[in-house]
Amino acid sequence: MKKSIRGIGTGIAVGAMLVTAACAPPEKEADKSTATSTDAGVSAATATSAEEFGGLDALIAAAKKEGTLNVIALPPDWANYGEIIKAFEAKYSIKVASATPDGSSQDEINAVKQLGSTTRAPDVMDMGGAVTVANTTLYAPYKVSTWDDIPDAQKESTGLWVNDYGGYMSIGYNSAKLPELTAVADLMKPEFKNKVALNGDPTAANAALNGVEMASLANGGSLDDISKGVEFFKSLKKAGNFSKIQATSATVKSGTTPVVFDWDYLQVGYKADVPGWKVFVPPNAVLGGYYNQAINKTAPHPAAARLWEEFLYSDDGQNLWLKGGARPVRMDAMTTAKTIDAAAAAALPQVGGDPVFQTQDQVAAASKYLVANWAAAIK
Amino acid sequence: MTESIATADDVAGDQPSGAGRRLPLSWLGAVPFFAYVGIFLLLPTGVVIFQAFFTAAGQPTLANIKVLTTSVVVEAFINTITLSAVSAVLGAALGAVLAYMIASGPADGLTRRLWTAVAGLLAQFGGVTLAFAFLATAGPVGLITLALSNLGFTTTGAWLTNLSGLVVVYTYFQIPLMVLVFLPALDGIRPQWREAAESLGGTSWQYWRHVAIPLLTAPFLGATLLLFANAFAAYATAAALISQGGIIIPLQIRIALSSETVAGQENVAKALALGMIIVVAVAMTLYAMMQRRSARWLR
Amino acid sequence: MVAVTTELADQAGPARRQLGLRAQRARRLRVVRWVLLFIFGLIFIVPLLAMVEFSTRELDLSGPRTLEYWRQIGDYPDLIQAIIASLELAAITAIGALLLLVPTMVWVRLRLPKLSRTVEFLCLLPLTIPAIVLVVGWAPVYLWINYFTPSQYQTSPLVLAFAYVVLVLPYMYRSLDAGLQAIDVPTLTEAARSLGAGWTTIMLRVITPNIASAVLNASLLAVSLVLGEFTVASLLNYVNVQVAMNQLSQANAGVSMAVASGALLFVFILLIALSFVGRRRSGGRPVEEN
Question: How far apart are alpha carbons C45 and C52 in whole angstroms?
């Protein structure tokens, strides 16, 4: 009798705890009162453009008052983010707290969901296509000042997400120790034994999926058909040329993974460590991909978040990305207006054919195929 | 808190009272532990298990659990169990030997301090750094690989990127962990017992068989179980060495949780975690059975 | 001591022969011991040396050496702050977990033996779930913790201690269990109580000194785990030493290995220093009072 009472008691206690935990705690009153807003009562958290907030200067003042910006998953050598962060900090005296630099796009969304509106939650996100369109309920719409320069196909109509920079899928390799690449099929040569690596697992990482898709395009596949790419890697594995080691700057520098499939702007970082590093974009398979910016709806520093977006889409920000080897989304508009950094534009890897881009549906179909077939193919 | 309640219990226990009165107060002594574990371990685990039965949109479903029965997942479970069991047994055996070597020196000596510090350091050494340390040693262009090729033996160094290589890497941190966890048991063996056995005319083998091994079996089995569980959920090292294919369950969980290309799989990860808990619960049951049987056998 | 025992026994031929055999065995054990320790030492140190070698590489294995990457460790000012925070975390976690575990384990042995399997399973549970999944469960708990934290401490990683105590439980439990089973807890406590000792005295001055080796090993494990813990801190967006090191290592490959090797060296020295704590058996002063 006593035992059952105890049992029921523990059951109720456990149930109560579960329910309490499932509910988020109430928002602190203090947070509400210090939230940045203009005299007109427009809160930074709901402003959809700088004008609505009262002009760029008002935004800058509000952001400086907030004092910090939380960014996530921005490695310093990814499209020159290191320099971009430093430039932003210097220009506006706002400290940028960079968390989880090697996180994936999904890790960014997980952080937003798990950290709620605590002061450590990410303010802005930079994500791949699939994750971006799957989580639009988490973003705040915002149109930067240079909104009109961005092609319609590369932004969401209300500003929930916007393309920021892109590049082409490429093969980087140490040309000092390996023969020159003229086609993707060259990788089957015996000199490449145990040397070819992808940047992650295609069922998990955006860059790796595009790597396989590029191989597919180069081997007779299409944007709808990734199977040729999977077959290519299967034969690469059979020949012993495919390495499962995760490519990092350390493995590239040490020569453990001297051939890496990755976005062309990510190959820039490897050049510093390996003097002979060459970047090859196959002329018959120019697969492009853009990443996307989004603002967290419950950002702890909403004004700073919006200022960051203004900075990224300004000429300075776009040119800094260009300096990192990525193609900024306003490139065409800036080239016409002659505000583009001509030297950096000329330094981009030469691209032979016409670039193609996968739609979200094609990406979904490709990942479905990979989930079913990749693990077995490279076993 | 524990002390005052306990004293009250002692008073109650010394009096000739019914068993019903003693039991509740005894339980109170365990409340701090259970309260803490309840909030910070059982609750999060409960949240995870609870979410395993829902889709990403919030609809109740058994689809996530069904994923556990697919051949890919079953194979990954087998791989994980094999990897953990082999590295646990190897780590336990070698670690016990190393621990014995350390324990047979002077208790305050430099050797013992040094080795305890090394063990503490390497027991938690893992992840990308450990993977790279091994790649730099025995990988495709590792120091040992290059040295061997200079001597004429060519290896591709690809052995690190399959399961057997992973076993070797895991054993590297299992041995120090075993040393740290098993040393207290070895310290509990007093040298006087050995002398007593000898003065009674016993041989070395008899000493081990009737004195040392019965005392050490329980802690040895417990430590092996710990090593098994330690290897079971480890994934950072494996992710750096075998980034393709998700051959062990923790890697599958990582793919499900942070995949950029396949959305909405987070709750599959929780179902996989539930599977892992079940496997370790089974391992614990086997361990309890083994303990009971070995205690009987050694009597 | 051996000689005394022998002399107390009959000083006849058989005893002297036994002495000779024992000395021979002791010598053989010493040789075996040094050989094995040397081999194990080699196995453990070679990968670490490979790391250090890579961190001093400028471009090539055969090329010039450089200390540039080690110097770059100093370029990250927040590292010191993160190190201090992690050291504080390590201390809080170790002490907190000991305070939670030792009384509970003793109590279970004395009064609630039926609970021992439950406690054992609970102390193994944190290991069975990968940290990335456990964080999903901790996130709501930490939202509540954040709610109660004053705003100036919102980014302080010290609240991670709650989670770390749980992570440390499996290792500590095993070590303490090995130590507790070697001493006769019921007899010791009975004797102490019959002499009038209260429970605090029993815990601090009777039980703990007898399991000093286990407590020390458990503390070493806790410190080592907290200093090496990355996943939970990173996913909850707190900055501890491993997160700070990870930031630093993103700069380039050489720095990543330099910072990792430096961290290993630092923790090694710290653990050796820690092993000097609580070795004073003579006064019987317990570890926690330091």
Answer: 11
Distance, in Å, from the CA atom of B183 to the CA atom of B100, rounded to the nearest integer, reads 8
* CA–CA separation, B226 and B220 (whole Å): 10
Hey, is the C-beta of C163 within 8 angstroms of any chain B C-beta? yes
Whether the CB of C276 is below 8 Å from some CB of chain A: the reply is: no
Q: Name beta bridge partners: A277.
A: A174
List chain C residues with CB under 8 Å of B92. none
Which residues on A lie below 8 Å from C238 (Cβ)?
120
Contacts 24+ apart (CB under 8 A), C227-231: C227/B124, C227/C86, C227/C87, C227/C90, C227/C263, C227/C267, C227/C270, C228/B124, C228/B125, C228/B126, C228/C267, C229/B124, C229/C164, C229/C167, C230/B127, C230/B236, C231/B236, C231/C131, C231/C132, C231/C135
Report the alpha-carbon distance of residue B216 to residue A366 in Å, rounded: 55
The whole-angstrom separation of Cα B47 and Cα A96 is 33
Q: How far is CA C268 from CA A314, B115, C275, in A?
A: 49, 10, 11
Task: Name the token pair of C2.
Answer: 């051996």
Tokens of C213: 């080796």
CB pairs under 8 A between A and C: 86
This prediction has a pTM of 0.86
pLDDT in tens, B160-203: 888 899 999 999 999 999 998 898 888 888 888 888 888 888 88
H-run or E-run covering A69: strand A68-72
Q: At what angle do helices B163-187 and B110-123 cross, to 10 degrees?
A: 140
C-beta separation of A174 from A358 below 8 A: no
Contact A325, A264 (CB under 8 A): yes
Q: Provide ipTM, 2 decimals.
A: 0.84
Q: Do residues C264 and C49 make contact, with C-beta atoms less than 8 angstroms apart?
A: no
Residue C145's contacts (CB-CB under 8 Å, 6 or more residues apart) are C159, C162
Identify the CA nearest to C274 among candidates C80, C82, C87, C84: C87
In the DSSP assignment, the letter for residue A246 is P
Alpha-carbon distance values, A141 to A66, A138, A285, A299 (Å): 20, 10, 35, 12
Is B35 within 8 Å of C103 (Cβ atoms)? no
CB A111 within 8 A of CB C136: no
Whole-number CA gyration radius for chain C? 24
CA distance B241 to B230: 18
User: Which of A171-175, A265-269, C259-263 holds the top average pLDDT?
Assistant: A171-175
Amino acid at position C148, single letter: F
Sorted by sequence, the CB contacts under 8 Å of residue A224 that are 6+ apart come out as: A362, A365
List Cβ neighbours of B111 (8 Å cut-off, separation of 6 or more): B102, B105, C37
pLDDT of C34 over the 60 cut: yes
Task: Report the pLDDT averaged over residues B193-218.
Answer: 84
Buried-state track A294-329, b at ≥16 Cβ within 10 A, e below 16: bbbbbbbbbbbbbbbbbbbbbbebbbbbbbbbbbbb
Q: What is the mean pLDDT of chain C?
A: 84
Look at the block and give the residue holding tokens 């030792």.
C102
DSSP codes of every residue in A34-57 = H--B-TT--BTTT--BHHHHT-HH
Torsion of CA B119, B120, B123, B128, to 10 degrees: -110
Q: Give C 49-108 residues with CB within 8 A of chain B.
A: 50-51, 53-54, 61, 100-101, 103-104, 107-108
Cβ neighbours of residue C93 closer than 8 Å, sequence gap 6 or more? C161, C164, C165, C168, C222, C225, C226
How many CB atoms neighbour CB A169 within 10 A?
26
Question: What residue in C sits closest to A21 (Cα-Cα)?
Answer: C140
CA atoms lying within 13 Å on the CB side of residue C236: 32
Q: Per the CB < 8 Å rule, is B9 touching C111?
A: yes
Between C1 and A244, residue with greater pLDDT: A244
Q: Which residues of chain B neighbour A375 with C-beta distances below 8 Å?
A: 72, 245-247
